[in-house]
Amino acid sequence: MTPTLDILARLVGFDTTSAKSNLALIDFAQEFLAQRGFQTHRLPDATGQKAGLFASLGPAGKGVLLSGHTDVVPTTGQNWTHDPFTLTHHNGRAYGRGTTDMKGFIACTLALADRAARMDLAEPLKIALSYDEEIGCVGIQHLIGDLERTIGLPRACLVGEPTDMQVVIGHKGKAALRATFHGTSGHSSLAPRYLNALYIAGDFMAELRKIQNVFATVGARDEAYDIPYSTLHIGQLTGGTVLNIVPDRAEMVFEYRHVAADRPADILSRINQAAEQVQDNYRTHFPDVKIEIAQFNAYPGLDVPPDAEITRLVQHLAQTNQTTKVAYGTEAGFFDALGIPTVVCGPGSMEGQGHKADEYVTVEQLTACDRMLDRLLDTLRKPLDS
Prior knowledge:
Blueprint (H helix, E strand, L loop, with lengths): L1 H11 L10 H13 L3 E6 L6 E7 L6 E6 L18 E3 L2 E3 L3 H18 L8 E6 L7 H6 L3 H4 L5 E4 L8 E4 L1 E10 L3 E2 L9 H22 L12 E9 L5 E2 L2 E10 L5 H20 L6 E10 L2 E2 L5 H10 L5 E3 L5 H6 L4 E3 L5 H4 L6 E3 H18 L6
Parallel strand pairs: 3-6, 3-7, 7-17, 8-16
Antiparallel strand pairs: 1-2, 2-6, 4-5, 5-18, 8-15, 9-13, 9-14, 10-12, 11-13
Helix pairs in contact: 1-3, 3-11, 6-7, 8-11
């Protein structure tokens, strides 16, 4: 375990909170891989303050891709008893921000890269490191188009989000939307003469809740999820300036997360129809009423058959016959959308440790991940008698 833990200590030491640069970590990873013979491709973002990294070792060919994100969530407001950016060991646990989500897997991947560099490979080992996953899988959306051009599309992809080393074959897709409500403004003593934008927002919220009820009662279901249907969630509602002015503008930020059987276009159509219904209710007296809806982020879901070849492969690697689906999203859907068979499996517990104070990963889980990746390496190396 020493190489993996030593690498994890370096990775945790980089404060790669999504609002900050990840370049120091990418510098470290790129040099580490280049010294071991990997072909590396650094892909900066538009600001130059962040970068992704694609790397490949071995002969030309498809090979297998290991993928992880380098950013972590903030520690602000959390009560840590350990320095979040110094790896701390205690009772078989390694504490630090990102140990579970998901620098533990990246440490295992880099430790594997070191072992792979001393072997003769029959097909390539490929690695992808992204940024800004924690703010909605943003970075991978800018990187994925360069995958084929740089290291080539692999025959399989393993995304190492924390799954307690269980093989995850599905998660819901997500879209984030903003609704802007336009009413009319005036003195609150004459409020009925004006159209309160917050009232429009309240009516729209009621319509969204009706849609949610339809999803929950008669919508498509996937019983592999804890919440087996598509969901709508409102995260923010803002509007108004002072009490004695009728607000003429309000804004709502909301999302939907959908099971595979529900098409995003159909969900968006329902949402737009709800907005039209609310506007129609006001138009007679307030013809200028308007609701604007804009999608500002989305990522695809993942839905892999339990008997797919990629599922059986990673079950063998992880030494399990089980599969599961998870509530949170990952970057796996982007690889899957390129036709790359992809599943999710990695060390740590998202439910138990993800995004929490005193985040940790157990040495036992890291050891299990190292063993899984060693089995993967065995499938990539040339036979001894070749």
